[in-house]
Every structure is written in structure tokens, then in C-alpha cells.
Amino acid sequence: MSQKVVIIGAGPAGLLLAQYLLRRGKYRVEIYERRSDLRLADGSPDRTFPISLQERGRKAIREIVGLEEAIASKSAFCNGTKIYRQQGKARQIPRAIPILTIDRNRLVAILLQHLTQAYTSEQLTVKFSCQCVEMDGRAKTVTLKPEQGEAFTLAYDRLVAADGARSCVRDQLVRDAGLQCEQNYVPDAYKSVFLPRANPALGLELEPDKIHAWNRDNKTRMMMVPQPIDRLNGVIIFDAQHNPLSNLSTKEEVLAFFQENFPLFGQLMSEAEAEDFLQRPVGRVLTVRCDRFHDGDSVLLIGDAAHAVSPSIGQGCNASLEDVLVFERLLVRYEDDWALALPAFSQQRVPEAHALKELSDYSFPRTKLLVVEFFLRLTISRLLHRWFPQWVKPFVFDLLLDRDLSYSQVLSLSQGWINKVKRSILSEG
Ligand SMILES: Cc1cc2nc3c(=O)[nH]c(=O)nc-3n(C[C@H](O)[C@H](O)[C@H](O)COP(=O)(O)OP(=O)(O)OC[C@H]3O[C@@H](n4cnc5c(N)ncnc54)[C@H](O)[C@@H]3O)c2cc1C
Questions:
Q1: All domains of the chain in start order, with CATH
Q2: What is the pTM of this model?
Q3: Is the CB of 303 within 6 Å of ligand 1?
Q4: Which of 102, 108, 291, 345 has the smallest number of CB atoms closer than 10 Å to its CB?
């Protein structure tokens, strides 16, 4: 008889895990998602952002026939980053292997589409606008509250918390099951920005195969990533304690702000986008560090619910997708015995997640001097590594691209630099 797996959260981790479980032919899957169906959404989304997927995440996607191709067809491939400055020429940081970037909501829509097309309603149900509000690990039940209607409780055989950094299931395990979990906000906040890639009236066009970044001195920066149909999606990132946007209250002020601080992007911004920008919420990123990713023989924490990290090195989604691959391998090894697979998952992934958190917190420096050193080290190590690969190892960002190195190995090879950045950040207070 097939087991009933309830997955909370239809983000990248929950949706890919559903694919992996269903293809095993031993499970029925029910997914409950707080938000509405992204495939039906119109207009400009509030809080989406580009996600870079590297080999770590892509190898997990590749296992599902046709999925990587579907994602690639809606992605942009960037062969480098162009960093603009107030004065002087833009600096280019090339990439040997182009990086796939895709809007987060578009990625989710493709995963959903692929999943719902592959399985029948007997095997899979997905309910939107339905939020998990409680779980009872002893009774093996969850309580869900639809946007409209009464809350209801349902039983599960296995429960997967794929409900992101602010996971309700995880909070409940902290309260009821002694899960140790540290949560912290990263100092930065962000707001989504959507622009056209060109302004023909000004003869301005940004390259379609570069990530476009603009770092200002005061920790305020923008990163805009090309999308299909000549758009740029991205974010403005700033110190949450000194929000430079807090005084903007009209679209004219928004346009003036971007034209003064990020002139290139300001010239691409329309009045309609300036108006929408005002209404968008400011996002804060919560990091999560847990001592285990399971409870008993039936509850699994996966993706950001288990290990949300700062987006500074673009690994959160890659690690979440990699979780799915690792968990499936364990199901195969233990012949779908979750009592064995769950603790093995914690044992394998917790040290990796802790290493990833350290790398995400401290790879990229926050002081001007160390930022200069960072780019120098990156450039020099690339040159020297090409000539003397046996003696000079790649710098931390390039090590992360090596799919054969675990996060713990990358951390151990980069410990000197990580310690330096950590000391500088901690001494800043
Ligand atoms: C600005 C920014 C840039 C990023 N860039 C990158 C990048 O370049 N590369 C990269 O690898 N990662 C990146 N990340 C991280 C990446 O977005 C996450 O790691 C990834 O989305 C995690 O996937 P997930 O499925 O675990 O969680 P989520 O994507 O958070 O999905 C969780 C889902 O659960 C739903 N949910 C939450 N609570 C409930 C509830 N109680 N009941 C029901 N449903 C619920 C949510 O609505 C959501 O749909 C970035 C993050 C940010 C903020």
C-alpha cells in the first residue's frame, strides 16, 4: 500500500521532492502551499528575484526527464558579471562556464507544471492558498487553514517541511520536540526591481549575457539579471538599519533616486515601474541553523526550512535541490525505510549546511578595503591557477562551482579568507 506524504510548501525543494517521491511509485503526495498558484498570477510579482543555478542544483533537476531543458528554455545564461561604478569604466568578471539564471517564481511555475502534468490526481494533489498552522508529531496530523473556509486537520504517514526559512513545522518541532535552531536576520534587506533591458530612445542597451551589478560605497547595491523577452529582474540591496528608500513616497522621487544613485538602471526605469516599486514590500532574509533535519521516523526538514542562508554567494536554492537528490539516494539505500533514511540524512547534510552557512556569511566582505582584496584575489588566483593548477587553488567563489567538492571541503580550503572576513565583520559589530 502506498504511503501518504504531506509536503508543506510548494517552493523549489518541495516540488522537486514530490517528483522524486512519485517516480518511486510507493507514495501518494499531497502538497499544501500558503500562496496562490503562481501559474495563474498576472502583473508584476511582489517578491521574486533571480536565482543562479549551478551544477549542484542542476544535477538534481537533470534526473527528472525533460525538466532541465524546460528550465533552461526560460533562463538566461550569463558568462560574466559587469560591475558598474559612479566614475570610470565598468569592471568585467568573466566566467569560464556560463551560469544559468532564472526568476524564482518562473522556476516554481515550471516545476509545478512539470509535476502536475506527469501525475494523476490519485497520485498527487496540490492545494494553494492553504497554510499549515499547526502539526502534531505524536498524532501524525497537520492543521491547515485555507484562505477561505474553515481550518481542517489531516493525517499523514510522512510529513515534509519544505515551507521555507520561516517554517511553521520547524517552529513546532522547536517547541514540542527539542529541535535546536538558531535564527538570525542578515544585516541586508532587499526590494525587487524589474526593468527593460534597453531604452531605445536613449540608445541604451545592456548586454543579455551578463549579470549587471552596481556597488555603491554605503552598502547599497543593485544586481540585475537578464531574463528572456528582454527584461532585467533583480534587487536593490541595502543595510536594513539605514534604509535609503524609506523617504521615497512618490514615483518622481523613486526615479530621481535611481537616476542619481544608479544612473544606468535609472535610465531604464519607467514611471509605471517606479510606481510599482513604491508598493513592493522590503524583504528580509532569515538564516537558519538546526542541529538535525528530521524528527522520529516521519518528519523531514528540507531546503530553506532546514538551512536558510544569506543569498550573498547564491547557494541556497542549489543546496535545497541537492538535498532532494541526497534524500532520494538514502531512500534507495534503505529501501524506503524512513526510520533509517531520516537520521542518515541529518548526519550527512547537517555538517554541509553548517559549512554553507559559514561560507554564505563570510565569503563576501563588507568593508571597502576587503572588497578590493576580494577582487584582486579572485583575479590573481584565476590567472595563477590556470598556469600552476597543482600549486594554486581557485578562490572561494570558483571552488563553489566545483560540483565534486562538498561545502565542508570548500570551507576547509578557504578557511584563511573566511576567518579574515569574519574578524572584520565581527569587529564592525
Ligand atoms: C534576494 C535573493 C536572492 C537569491 N539568489 C539565489 C541564487 O542566486 N542562487 C541560489 O541557489 N539561491 C538563491 N536564493 C535562495 C533561494 O531563493 C532559496 O534558497 C530557495 O528558494 C529555497 O527553496 P525552498 O523550496 O526551500 O523554500 P522557498 O523558496 O522559501 O519555498 C517555501 C514555500 O513554502 C510556502 N510556505 C511557507 N510557509 C508555509 C505554510 N505555513 N504553509 C504552507 N506553505 C508555506 C511559501 O509560500 C513558499 O512557496 C536567493 C534568495 C534571495 C532572498
A1: 3-74+104-184+288-360 (3.50.50.60), 77-102+185-284 (3.30.9.10), 364-428 (no CATH)
A2: 0.94
A3: yes
A4: 291
